[in-house]
Amino acid sequence: MSTTIQEKEASFVLHTYNRAPFVLVRGQGMTLTDSEGKTYLDFTSGIAVNALGHADPEIVAAVQEQVAQLSHVCNLYHTAPHAELAGMLCELSFADKVYFCNSGGEAVEAAIKFARKYARVVHGPGKTGIVAFSGGFHGRTAGALAITAREKYQAPFRPLMPGASFAPFNDLEAAGKLIGPETCAVFVEPVQGEGGVHIAHPEFLRGLRRLCDRYGALLVFDEIQCGLGRTGRLWAYEHAGVEPDMMTLAKALGGGLPIGATLLTDRVAEVIEPGDHGSTFAGGPVVCRAAQVVLRRVSDPALLEHVSAMGDLLVKRLGELNSPRIREIRGLGLMIGIEMDGEVMPLLEAGYERGVLLLNAGPNVLRLLPPYIVTEAEIDRLMDILAEIIEQ
Ligand SMILES: Cc1ncc(COP(=O)(O)O)c(C=O)c1O
Q1: pLDDT-above-70 percentage for the chain
Q2: pLDDT at 3
Q3: Predicted TM-score of the model (pTM)
Q4: Is the CB of 189 under 6 A from ligand 1?
Q5: Which of the 8 DSSP states describes residue 368?
Q6: Domains along the chain with CATH numbers
Q7: Which of 106, 145, 225 to mutate to test the pocket of ligand 1 (most atoms within 8 A of CB)?
Q8: d(CA 178, CA 164)
Q9: 187 pocket-lining for ligand 1 (C-beta < 6 Å)
Q10: 3-class SS letters over 27-95
């Protein structure tokens, strides 16, 4: 079966991803099973999505119940899950309003449009510049790509949306030279994920807040990967004590179903009118019911404490590996980057062999994003496997 599926994919699916050489058929908690019955310990969470692990019974029940009751109506009608999820997000964050969409890229697109409209209405035309950072990743849709400083991703698609400029991450002085009267927004990940797990210095985020306030620009935190409990706090911005004007979310929010959200303050929301933006599927009842379960569970202080404790344990155990191949270990909660002295793809492949799924973040960084339910025993097992494969 596995070979047939892989051949079919190769024949009919557009080749935008290189996939691992097995076919996954089932997931339960931390474990995935392939079509040959082989199991894999999942230290990826489907790239920061399955925060509660696979097939969480409460998510399954909520989705089953909602899909049987009402699965889609579009945004011309009110539904309870949509309104209730928005209320929960606002109660738990800096935000006063929520715009729902279906992915991280879309949440970023919405934030770009809202920032541009806010600047135009409040300050007049011409204030359209967006400052973002080296190593940042905001998505592959047209607008998000333009604020993602990666030559390889951008080059084939030029000309891009104009107005973007980039400062080195964590370099406040350089950011200060780019942020000015023509800046409508500054986009930053409080912890960069795809760029290699780099944590923003609290003073850097505070400085960006000051610069945005000075020039009437909006500060946008992209917490698509680092938000929703991943760092041991519900929002990564809590570590720095700085609040944004907008925040983008996706990934973990839907418990495995697709959803994105752009959170805003009322000050920004006031300029947006019906017709400015929209999406047929966005904020549908099924995904919003799943997301309510996720949000209630990931905001539980006991789970957040577990995330911090398991993150600390992982970093400690990684240090104890004492491997000369490891250059640096960076982490906040269960978002961990291990900078190696060479390419990490062979480690990912060796992981497949030994039944563990790992991620890379660029060529030299091994990235761990396990579900928040990971246990000490599973971390021990990972360490045994890592010790072996790094050695080899
Ligand atoms: C910080 C960040 N922003 C945006 C995105 C894009 O999200 P999506 O793949 O859902 O479009 C990602 C995805 O990895 C991300 O990590």
Answers
A1: 100
A2: 86
A3: 0.98
A4: yes
A5: E
A6: 2-54+301-391 (3.90.1150.10), 58-298 (3.40.640.10)
A7: 225
A8: 10
A9: no
A10: EEECEEEECCCCEEEECCHHHHCCCCCECCHHHHHHHHHHHHHCCCCCCCCCCHHHHHHHHHHHHCCCC
